[in-house]
Amino acid sequence: MQKKILVTGGCGFIGSHTIALLIEKGYDVVSLDNFSNSHKEALKGLEKLTGRTIANLEVNLCDRLETMKAITEAAPFDAVIHFAAYKSVGESMAKPFMYYQNNIPSVINIAEAAVRNGIQHFIFSSSCTVYGDAEVIPVTENTPIGNALSPYGLTKITAEAQLTDVNKRYKWFKPTFLRYFNPAGAHESALIGEASRRPSTNLVPIICEVVAGKREKLAVFGDDYQTRDGSCIRDYVHVMDLAEAHISALELSLIQESKTDIESFNLGIGEGVSVLEAISAFEQVTGKKVNYAIGEKRPGDVAAIFADYSKAAKVLNWKPKRTIEDIMETAWKWEQVRW
Ligand code: WQD
After folding, report:
1. Mind listing the pLDDT tens digit for each residue in 39-49?
2. Number of other residues whose CB lies within 10 A of the CB of residue 1
3. Partner of 71 for a Cys bridge, out of 51, 53, 113, 155, CB 3.0 to 4.6 A?
4. How high is the pLDDT of residue 299?
5. Active-site position among 152, 180, 225, 309
C-alpha cells in the first residue's frame, strides 16, 4: 500500500528536494506551502523532474483553524515531514518577532493537526543552532542544547521542547528531530534549488549572486576568529544528502511502529570549511573569481561548528556522499537558470 506523506514547506529549499526523492521512492506526496518564503515555480520544477503533478495545500500554518480544517480534509497521512519555517540566523537577529510569530505557532498547529488525525510519524526540521556556541566540536546529539545565540535557534529549541511534551501526553506520537548543519547546493538537474522570497543571507547563494552580477560584493563577516584562517567554520551539507537522510529517518520511523521514543540526528558531513575556504572551493570549481572584502563580524555567529554524524551513520545507515565542491558546482549551475 503506497504511503502518503504530508510535506510542509514543500516548495521550499529542502522540502522540494525531499519531495523529489520521495516521489522517486514511490511515496504519495502532498505539499503544504503558503509561498510566504518560496515560489509556486518549485511545483513546476518538481513536475518536470518527476513527471508528477504535486498537490499543494496553500495553508497558513500560523492559523490554527485553517490548519486543522485543511489537514483533516486532506487526511489520512502516514507521516508529516515538517520543514515550513523561516531559517536565517542573520535575519532572525534583525527580526526576532517575525521568527517567534512564524516558527513557533506553526509547529504547535501542525502537531495538533497530526495528533487530531492520528498521524504518528513526525519528522521535524531542526537545526545545529540548538547547540549554540558548543564548547566541544564536533557536536554530538548529546551536546547540551539551550544556549541559543539567535532567535532562529531559540525557535528550534522551543519547537523540540514542544514536540517532546506532545510525545509525553500522546505516547503513540513519534517526532524525530533532524538537526541540519549548513544546507547548500541544488539538485543536479537545476530544475529546483534554493529560492527564498527574501534576499539571501546564506553564504553559498550570496557567493553565486555576486558572481552572477546580482550583488556587487561578498562581505566576509570577520577574519579574526580563533580559527585556522580567522574566518568562521561551518559544516556545509549538500541538500540532496539531506533529502536522503529524511527518507532514511522516515522509513526507520515507519517500521518502528511501537518504538515511539524521540530520536535526534545530526546531519552534517563531519568536517568544517571556513568562509575563505568556501570561496576558494567555488573559484576552483567554477573558474570564476569571487569579489569579496573582509567586513564586520555578524551578531549571532559562532566561530566554528561542525557535526559528529556517527549516530545517523549507525542508526539511519546514512553517509553524506557530496563535497563542498559538489555544493558549489550545483549551486552555481542553479544560479544561472533559477526562476
Ligand atoms: C555561514 C557562514 C557567516 C553570509 C545556517 C542556516 C541555518 C542553520 C545553520 C539549519 C557564517 C558567513 C554569510 C555573508 C559571510 N541550518 N557569511 N558573509 O549562519 O551558519 O546558518 O546554518 O537549520 O538555517 O542559515 O549560515 O550561510 O548565513 O553563514 O561571511 O554574506 O558564512 O558569518 O560564518 P549560518 P550562513
Report:
1. 999 999 999 99
2. 5
3. 113
4. 85
5. 152
CA distance 267 to 54: 27
Q: What is the pLDDT of residues 132-180, one digit of tens each?
A: 999 999 999 999 998 889 999 999 999 999 999 999 999 999 999 999 9
**What is the pTM for the complete model shown?**
0.97
User: To which residue does cell 547563494 refer?
Assistant: 205
Give the DSSP per-residue string, 133-189. S-SSSSB-TTS-----SSHHHHHHHHHHHHHHHHHHHSTT-EEEEEEE-EEE---TT
Q: Which three cell numbers stand for residue 122?
A: 513526525
Comparing C-alpha atoms, which of 184, 197, 201 is closest to residue 37? 197
Q: Which residues line ligand 1 (CB under 6 A)?
A: 87-90, 127-129, 180, 182, 201-203, 206, 218-221, 232, 234, 275, 298, 301
DSSP H/E element including 315: helix 310-315
Architecture of the domain defined by 4-186+236-268: 3-Layer(aba) Sandwich (3.40)
